[in-house]
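Incident review: delayed structure delivery

Summary: a single-chain prediction request sat in the queue longer than the usual turnaround. Root cause was a stuck worker, restarted by the on-call engineer. No data loss occurred. The affected request and its eventual output are reproduced below so the record is complete for anyone auditing the incident later.

Affected input:
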Amino acid sequence: MSEPSYQPMGGSGPSGPRAGFWRRFAAALLDGIILGIVGGILGAILGFDRNGINGISTLLGVLYYTYLEGTTGQTLGKQALGIRVIDLSGGGPIGFGRAFIRYIGRFVSAIVLLLGYLWMLWDKERQTWHDKFANSVVVPVSAYPVSK
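Output delivered after worker restart:
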């Protein structure tokens, strides 16, 4: 079975359409709510205290983002908002290793007053710091459909 390829519609090339700040923000908010609920339920079922629930939520986050962004490029929040993560150079999936780096990069993006997240507002490719770490971009699915 061949791996899906991602190609921009209309020949927009590597500097084609990018997902906007508010769309990305809403997707991240949805993902946070989903992970918070699942982590809380799992922690309660397993009898964890607040620290244990935080630990299981962190582990869930690592697995959730690494798997989904590494394969389809879409978390549930990104699916709901019609966006996906793709490789900046080739346009395909970023794979597990780079998805993990991108996840860890989120913490670096947040360290200095969320500057790494806001970076996309003036970056030519609309990349956050964690996008840059993983050499990825977030794009609208409508402009970068999956061809099988």
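Verification: Confidence is low (pLDDT under 50) at residues 1-13.
Action items: add queue-age alerting; document worker restart procedure.
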